[in-house]
User: Fold this.
Amino acid sequence: MENSEEPMTYFRHNGIIFCSQLHSVERLESLKDANIDPHIPVLLTYPKSGTTWMQQIMSLILCNDDDSTKAINLYERAPWMESVRYNFENMDHQLLTSHLNYQMVPNCVKNKMLKIIYVARNPKDVIVSSYHFHKCSHFLEEPKNFQDFLEKFVEGNVFFGSWFEHIREWYSHKDELNILFMAYEDMKNDLRSVVQKVASFLNKKLDEKTLESILNQCTFKHMQENPKTNYKSVPELFDFESGSFYRKGITGDWKNHFLVSQNEWFNSIYQEKMGDFPLKFDNM
Ligand code: A3P
Assistant:
């Protein structure tokens, strides 16, 4: 990526791939003892599962659709705790976001007082979204081709490691945590119910007018056009000529990318790794 200001490299920590433009071993290590106010909710996702969408939903609920809060970039209202670009401990924020696995989050996140929302998405759509995201991110290596990327994803040799392990591990600890699992597909099917469910989990009451306003501001089009949610303010991270952060925002786009043989191969791996997993995804 010629436009990149820094050399684009990955590094591994605890066996997981991170990006040196966004992460560091020091930060990841010091995070274990970070102090988080247990009243600040945490959003956890595997990358490309609808993180930004849920950040916007949670942020608008938490501020009750307040204009001065909305004037702040979404990534500052809901910073990534593992990012070296911002130190969330020195910032005002409404919620924290993380792609980390269970082992690597700060110890205090495991306190039952703290509310966690985990958003999961059909892994085939995660793969497609991530494949395109790699092409327009300055901090990720451009994939050789879809087949190569698919294999790397299945092996967990992509940033933030294995999708399978991420979701399985978080789910296996659900009874020790105050965690709400949500699906991208449910957000697509019935956003109103999702917003109501999230508001209720966060102990927030929304009147009808506020709910309508939040729903309006969470549409794909609105978020794509809104300078506070569309990442256009960080051209050092994205090459908007090569793609858009708001790419399609649909479910089932994997059908336009997977060959029949790739789908059969992925299904057999999925069955082997996730056959007994209680959460099921639409459109598999
Ligand atoms: P696609 O690449 O399939 O379009 P994340 O925020 O975790 O990186 O996830 C990004 C994915 O969520 C992208 O998927 C993006 O288009 C989609 N997305 C973001 N906001 C959305 C919205 N308001 N409605 C539907 N999809 C949305």
Observations:
- The pocket of adenosine-3'-5'-diphosphate is lined by residues 45, 47-53, 125, 129, 132, 218-220, 223, 246-249, 253 (CB under 6 Å).
